[in-house]
User: Which sequence fits this backbone?
């Protein structure tokens, strides 16, 4: 790699050809190296073509991809869904054919099928259901922090960040408490593919996806026969143009919700705790004026942490973008991580600053296209309520170790991170 090393060991890239975003090893590098690489791409080659260099057993190595690193381009691609399709997959790597059925949810559909499905799913997000979920967020967060508060020292991810999003999704879907751990393990495997801890093994991925898919289908069929007060029942009975979700469609939607709503929010909460520990002045300001600043803080945490690092599209025809022609069939990766640090929109983008005037414009939940995160408001709520409970019950909580990061180009995950506080 032709990268000059600076005094503090962050490489100043001399040539962008040396930046290998298609190599999984790139994603294990320290975050300041990642930032330096994306800053170089934004300024010198905002639309660059990269090779795919990581081999996953059983999955063909892909043909390479265009990489969009500027805010403006990421938004433009996101909003031109008629030219940039989601149907061939939304992550950089090739999708193993054996898993297509399990991951074939709305996020990999194009309009008009996507729009129809989204309409149907939105029927489950009624004001009554949202109110119930709000209540579940508060009750669950209160209880979780209370349980952890006696420990004085523990793993933040395990005891604070991970359980809340999982429990809330499980409450929404009507999953019994005894099955939550199993759902948690399946989602870890699905989003951890590539990280040595969860295995590069395709069979492990297929087993997890199939396990969850079969579980969800059984749950859907149960609620079709015996509806209850949960979104599984609403979804199984809702109709759009006279059609209902099949058990298989519900199965892949369940996987989407469990994966999309769980790991993302968990990592936002974990990055939030780290950032607030590193910035005691901002933490103090937030604690003193929570009702006014908590939404801005939640958005700034998601901007800085970018729990979803990228989304991918495939060009349906030749498209001209800022002077570069993207060919029909080419893969295009939108780096949300980088768009969220684009100096044109976020001066000093690596700096965490809850007082930024434009925290809400960040691209963390998507760039405003048709697939914009369906759970964005719920996630914002969960992040706000979790820190509210932490400030109430363990106000001196601090992160005391470096994060043990997930090795992934897709999820900016933290697997483990110690914290300490005065025990109750
Ligand atoms: C901090 C937490 C979260 C982040 C960062 C996040 C991020 C994202 C992103 C980047 C997308 C794709 C947007 C695009 O293609 O432009 C997405 C889609 C989606 N998210 Fe989230 N998400 C979060 C939490 C949640 C939660 C809590 C739920 C569910 C309860 C959820 C459900 C979904 C669904 C269903 C989609 C697909 C929407 C569609 O295809 O129309 N997400 N999310």
Assistant:
């Amino acid at each position: 790699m032709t990268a000059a090393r600076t005094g503090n060991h962050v490489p100043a890239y001399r040539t962008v050809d040396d930046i290998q975003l298609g190599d999984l090893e790139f994603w294990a590098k320290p975050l300041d190296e990642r930032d330096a690489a994306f800053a170089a791409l934004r300024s010198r080659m905002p639309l660059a073509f990269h090779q795919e260099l990581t081999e996953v057993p059983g999955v063909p190595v892909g043909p390479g991809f265009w990489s969009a690193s500027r805010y403006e381009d990421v938004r433009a691609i996101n909003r031109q869904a008629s030219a940039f399709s989601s149907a061939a997959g939304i992550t950089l790597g090739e999708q193993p054919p054996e898993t297509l059925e399990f991951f074939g949810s709305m996020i990999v559909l194009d309009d008009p099928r996507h729009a129809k499905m989204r309409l149907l799913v939105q029927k489950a997000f009624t004001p009554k259901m949202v109110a119930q979920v709000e209540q579940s967020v508060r009750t669950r967060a209160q209880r979780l922090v209370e349980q952890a508060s006696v420990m004085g020292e523990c793993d933040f991810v395990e005891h604070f960040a991970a359980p809340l999003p999982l429990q809330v999704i499980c409450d929404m879907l009507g999953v019994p408490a005894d099955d939550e751990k199993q759902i948690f393990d399946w989602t870890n495997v699905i989003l951890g593919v590539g990280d040595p801890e969860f295995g590069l093994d395709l069979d492990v991925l297929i087993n997890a996806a199939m396990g969850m898919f079969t579980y969800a289908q059984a749950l859907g069929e149960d609620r079709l026969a015996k509806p209850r007060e949960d979104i599984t029942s609403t979804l199984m009975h809702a109709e759009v143009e006279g059609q209902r979700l099949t058990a298989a469609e519900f199965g892949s939607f369940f996987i989407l919700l469990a994966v999309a709503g769980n790991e993302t929010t968990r990592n936002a909460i974990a990055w939030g705790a780290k950032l607030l520990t590193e910035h005691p002045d901002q933490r103090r300001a937030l604690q003193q004026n929570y009702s006014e600043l908590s939404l801005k803080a939640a958005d700034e945490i998601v901007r800085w942490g970018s729990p979803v690092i990228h989304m991918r599209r495939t060009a349906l025809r030749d498209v001209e973008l800022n002077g570069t022609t993207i060919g029909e069939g080419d893969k295009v990766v939108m780096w949300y991580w980088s768009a969220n640090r684009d100096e044109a929109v976020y001066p000093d983008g690596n700096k965490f600053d809850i007082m930024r005037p434009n925290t809400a414009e960040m691209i963390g939940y998507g760039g405003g296209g048709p697939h914009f995160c369906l759970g964005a408001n719920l996630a914002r709520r969960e992040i706000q309520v979790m820190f509210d409970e932490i400030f109430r019950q363990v106000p001196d909580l601090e992160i005391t170790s470096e994060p043990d990061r997930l090795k992934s180009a897709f999820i900016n995950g933290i697997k483990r991170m110690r914290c300490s506080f005065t025990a109750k």
